[in-house]
Model the fold of this input.
Amino acid sequence: MTRDEIKDLILEIIEDIDEDAEFDNLDADAPLRDQLDLDSMDFLDIVMELRKRYKLQIPEEEYPELATLTSCVNYLEPKLKDV
Amino acid sequence: MSDKSAHNRFVLTGVGLTAPGGANDPAEYRRRLLAGESGITSIDLRYMGKAPAGICSFPETKYRKKKENKRGTRAGCIGVYCAAEALSDAGIDFTQYDRSRTGVYIGLTEHGTVETENEVYNISRFEYNIDYWTHHHNPRTVLNNPAGEITMNQGITGPHYSIGAACAAGNAALIQGLQMLQLGEVDLALCGGISECVGSFGIFASFRAQGALAEHVDPTKASRPLDRDRNGIVISEGGCVFTLERLDSALARGAKIYGELAGYAINSDARDFVLPYGPRQSQCMRAALDRAGMQPSDITIINTHATGTRQGDVEECRAIREVFADCPRTYANNTKSHIGHAMGAAGVLELAGNLPSFTDNMVHPTINLDNLDPECALPGLVAGSPRKLEHVDALLNNSFGMVGINSVIIVKRFVAN
Done:
């Protein structure tokens, strides 16, 4: 997966959680939680969806890596490079 | 209920509901009941296939976002809609009442079955690896879930919990609300019942295994309590929430009053897991009448609990005949013939269906009663078409459940004195 594809994947998962989510003015380097109506349970939904789709097991101590869109892409890029 | 001061009289002032077939407010529901319409359709269940069922269709995102509905439960979604509609109907916006002095009491036949079945099905697609079990499972399945979802939606900070009383739960929640008002624990009670049972193949399968699941080529004909050809229960989802207030508070704010909760009783058969017991049901009806200070002849309409099972209907009718032996001005009907058995919501949905009789003086009919079972014959049974009366003074609402629980509510026309 390319970085753009990973970004689209994350946004698609978030949209599935909250179809009212607005991405137009999303700052990729700012925390997603500050910009979208997401809480800790929603982040667990993102983790679960990545597990279901790609069998990715993300350890709890690495959840902070999913804080921003850019950090998500950085973190997932090596894990999804063969997808 | 011996202290009859306005502070110790309790009145229903708002109704919010969703009934099978798409009736989502009291007026539309009443119209359908008087027209003799069935709200039953067919459902295609996991593992089981088709069965008749009562399914609700209501504006699910009217009071909260789709995201919250996905996180919560179907019962919570129904509850949030019904509670918001009841408050709106009652004209309560929490300028009149403190949210910390408001209680939410929701009757449930069961809760968590649907969510658990769904989750087991979900992990079956991942070789039963529990890493795929959702973190939402526990907040969805805690027994207070539907009531709690209502408090989150309304910002209500008073007590909330569920009343588990099998299919007597709707009535039991009303009783709980009344008692909490009586005790001074709250000033406003949101009480009612909810069913999300149609989401569970297991509930259908269990009734089928018991020989108590209705079947009919035409689902609208499947729910036929008291009929000779009845063959079981039609399972429905649904919800109904009432606002219950002290009379003095309701009068002070100029509330519309649907009726006064005049009497109630709950008792136990102490006999059998599933089989009903008429003598205990008649005791329960008498206890409710005693508490209300009323005679059987004071009741204008009996809403029968009858679900369409062979023995249950006969037991109840025998009990009613015994209590109402000489009451020529008492009529009876069956609301499940229209909407099926809405389980935890049954008692309150059926009460809500009959409440408008205080204003329109009509008794809605029992439908699908083509061949009355002689053992279910009741004097004053209204069937086929509605009956117009001169005056409706009091309703008696029966609601019974498994493991031997009986509940009776009596609501009378509000008369100021």
In short: The mean pLDDT of chain B is 97. Chain B has two domains: 10-252, 264-412.
